[in-house]
Amino acid sequence: MKPAKEKKPLSNDKFSHAMRREIYEQPAAIARTIENHLKDDIIFPGELLALDSALLTFGKLIIAASGSSRHAGLAGEIMIEDLSGVAVDVEYASEYCYRSTHAAVDPIVMVITQSGETADTIAAQREALTRGVKTIAISNVPNTTIVREAGAALISGAGPEKSIPATKSFTTQLTILYLMALFLARKRGRMTSEVTRTELQCLLRLPEQIERELSRWDELAEKFGSVHFKAEKSLYLGRGVHYAIAREGALKLKEISYAHAEGYPAGELKHGPNALVDEKLPVVVLATCDHHDPDSVLRYRRTLEVMKEVKSRRGHLVAVATEGDKEVGSIAEHVFYVPSARELLLPIVEVIPLQLFAYHVATKKGYDVDHPRNLVKAVVTE
């Protein structure tokens, strides 16, 4: 099985900001990540050999990460649990060291970091090693502290990311986590080789599908951003694996536009956040659906009901929906349409319009999206 052909990097001169250029580099970065970790249908060939026996017997996977990397971990939690049956907990890296020791489980700790030098995440990994726990590091940068100290390391194909907001580093982390879900499902006998091959084919198609849609999403994001850039707060809603993307979309907007934004599970709207909904509030909803997955369809139908309630309260809806969907368009004022994909692959696709939306909101305000105030690319001190 050969990965999709990688496209040549886009010229730096085409973009006024590194963030926008790096958003456009995501198809190539995702394709490169797959190619780095897939050889002749074998996922992670040789990369996890040092943990081979532990991977057969461990009782739980604990993911420790911060910021966008933690949001990738939240999506990875559902990918891994749903496909492999392995129990997963996601911790804030900054909190992991202060938790009690792992009771009644034999865990593996996975740390996720863009820079490989994140202080909180390094501390979490060292604490795990002190407890005698095997570790796996996912990093966007090789030859870093966290990679050198890990029991095994999985490096993304993102390449250098100059803008402070995570874009291609995030989607390549999601790609590795999806591969990890397939790897564990196959290793634990939860998935046949034929089913694994089918899932991999769907993953391999994503870069080309994203490439086709980027310019259209960019145009829509500029249009929608020009409507909502004055909003002082926003809500982002998603169910299941899409909740992680709601969190990430809100973080992108918060980081670079300085507007307050929060990501919530869609079903939690009535448990407090509903009080914020009025004619001044943009509500961004992940309303994609894998129509071949009954659970996805159920979540989708319930999300539509939430959208109707927001509309009844005069909230302004911005939605991400699956191509061909007519129901979302009848409810939401503004809709990004993304290609059809497996439920657990949709996060890789649907986050990109939200990255572009945040970008255009921030640039409309006149902010430097590459260097947001008070933020650095790698948090190297606690």
Mean pLDDT: 92
Indicate the percent of residues in helices: 40-55%
Radius of gyration: 20 Å
Identify the strand order in the major beta sheet: 4-3-5-6-7
SS-based structural class? alpha/beta
Could you please say which CATH topology of the largest domain applies here?
A: Rossmann fold
State the major sheet.
5 strands, parallel
Quick one: how many beta strands?
A: 12
CATH secondary-structure class of the largest domain? Alpha Beta
Shape: globular
> Which architecture of the largest domain does the CATH hierarchy give at level 2?
3-Layer(aba) Sandwich
Question: What would you say about this model in short?
Answer:
The protein has 382 residues and is of the alpha/beta class. The protein has helices at residues 18-24, 26-37, 52-57, 67-84, 93-96, 119-130, 145-149, 168-187, 193-228, 242-257, 294-312, 327-331, 346-364, and strands at 38-39, 42-43, 60-65, 88-92, 107-113, 134-139, 152-155, 233-238, 260-265, 282-287, 316-322, 334-338. Strand 3, helix 4 (67-84) and strand 4 (88-92) form a beta-alpha-beta unit.
What does this protein look like?
The chain is an alpha/beta fold. The chain has 2 domains: 12-204, Rossmann fold; 207-364, Rossmann fold (3-Layer(aba) Sandwich), CATH 3.40.50. It contains 13 helices and 12 strands. It has helices at 18-24, 26-37, 52-57, 67-84, 93-96, 119-130, 145-149, 168-187, 193-228, 242-257, 294-312, 327-331, 346-364, and strands at residues 38-39, 42-43, 60-65, 88-92, 107-113, 134-139, 152-155, 233-238, 260-265, 282-287, 316-322, 334-338. The strands form 3 sheets. It has a 5-stranded parallel β-sheet with strand order 4-3-5-6-7, with helices on both faces. It has a 5-stranded parallel β-sheet with strand order 9-8-10-11-12, with helices on both faces. A two-stranded antiparallel ribbon has the order 1-2. Helix 4 (67-84) links the parallel strand 3 (60-65) and strand 4. The chain is globular. The N and C termini lie far apart (43 Å).
